[in-house]
Amino acid sequence: MKALTDERVCELIGSVLPRASAKGGIKPSMSLRSDLGVDSVGLMSIVFVLEEQAGIDAFGYVDRFVKAEYVSDIIDIVREG
Is residue 11 predicted with pLDDT exceeding 50? Predict the structure, then answer.
């Protein structure tokens, strides 16, 4: 599967967090928790969307997803996946 661009990963995260996306979009430098208000349920939703759209094996990256602090951390996981 073709790798997703940073912008596309941000769009996919925004599809799970429409309120945050509506406030000017999702940027790689944003904090998942403080800027976007992502909680554990939100993180799971992001992971499911990325698994479906990027074809990554999310189970193999669970620890990294849980430790992710910024949108850029999620982008890095997707690139490696």
Answer: yes
